[in-house]
Each structure stands twice: as C-alpha cells, then as structure tokens.
Amino acid sequence: MRTIFTTDQVHERDRFARWHDIARQGIVDHDAKPACRKSFQAELQVGAIGTNSLAFFRSSDMTVSRTRRHIASDATDEIFVCRQFSGRLVLEQDGYQVGLEPGDVTLLDPAVPYAAHFFGGSELLVFKVRRNALEGRVGRTRALTARALPANADGRLTSAYLGLLPFHANGLSAAVGVT
User: 114 near 79, Cβ under 8 Å?
Assistant: First the structure.
C-alpha cells in the first residue's frame, strides 16, 4: 500500500478540507463533516490486487454521507467490502444499520445512498470489487449490505484474509485478484 495523503504536515485549518478532497477522489465522492476541524487527523493509503483497488484509511471522528446527487454524478460498478481494523464505525444503508468493531466485515454499495459515523481512531479497509465478479460468487448483494458478516468460521476466515491485504496488496500477482 502506498500513502497518498496524511494530515501530519498540513496546517490544522486546512487538514479536513485537503483530506476530504483526496478521499472523494481515492475512495468515492461523498459529503463529510468532522467532529472537530481543528484536531482532525487522517491518513489514506491505496493499493491494488489485479483489477481491484484497496483503500485503507485512519481518521478522527466524522460523519459521511453519499447521496443520490453523488451517485448521479459519480456512478460506480463496484461493491465495497469493508473491514474494520480499529475504532468503531456505524453504517446505515437501505434501512439497515451495522456497527463495526475491529475485525468486523460488511458490504457497502456505493450505488445506493448511505451514511456513516466514524468514531475517533477508526481504521477501515475498503476493498473495491467489481459488482459482477462478486455477485457471480455470492448472488445479489443488496440483501447483504450494511449487515455484519456472521462470526462463524467462514466469517472469521474472510476477516483474517482481508486483514492481510494491506500488507501484501501491491506484491500479489494478478492471479490472486478477483476477476
């Protein structure tokens, strides 16, 4: 993974605005509001596995929303597989709400409006998978978004696998990627 932005060397008055611009480009277009602009801290790393991209970010407390306006101007044919590394995240989509703790995994569909609340110290991996590739394996994803992956053996293995991706992403061959 390659760090494309950190607030470490950015003046406090500019931190959130710069972060938001980079996150809108590197993850997906959205609106966001920090709990405190003055103390806001964040970092964004990106990588790839085959044709699938990864974004790993750390952030201070903030709320995020992706609306129909964003979707109309920034269509994507991806599903986000989200794995929480630290902190807490609450996602709402399609009438469902999920609270993610470290190790928890859920799907998020950027083609459907959503809201999120990142609590301070949140670290999240977003694995962007082409919709047709994922749905070819698991069926329609609409019934899976904003719901925690079960804590059974399959769910724990999936979480563990996703937990390794940031450390190996750019070094893996294209054969490992989801096609």
Answer: no
DSSP category for residue 46: E
Task: Check if the beta carbon of residue 119 is closer than 8 Å to that of residue 89.
Answer: yes
DSSP one-letter string for 136-172? HHHS-STTTBTSPPPSSHHHHHHHHHHHHHHHHGGGS
The total number of structural domains in the chain stands at 1
Is 45 domain-assigned?
A: yes
Query: Tens place of pLDDT for every residue, the chain, 179 residues?
Result: 899 999 999 999 999 999 999 999 888 999 999 999 999 999 999 998 888 899 999 999 999 999 999 999 987 889 999 999 999 999 999 999 999 999 999 999 999 999 999 997 899 999 999 999 888 888 888 888 899 888 899 989 999 999 998 888 776 665 555 44
Please report whether residue 178 resides in a domain: no
Burial of 125 (0-12, 13-18, 19+ CB in 10 A): buried
Amino acid at 59: S
Q: How far apart are CA 88 and CA 99, in angstroms?
A: 7
DSSP code at position 76 = -
In a domain, residue 179? The reply is no
Which residues touch 29 (CB under 8 Å, ≥6 apart)?
Answer: 66, 70, 73, 74
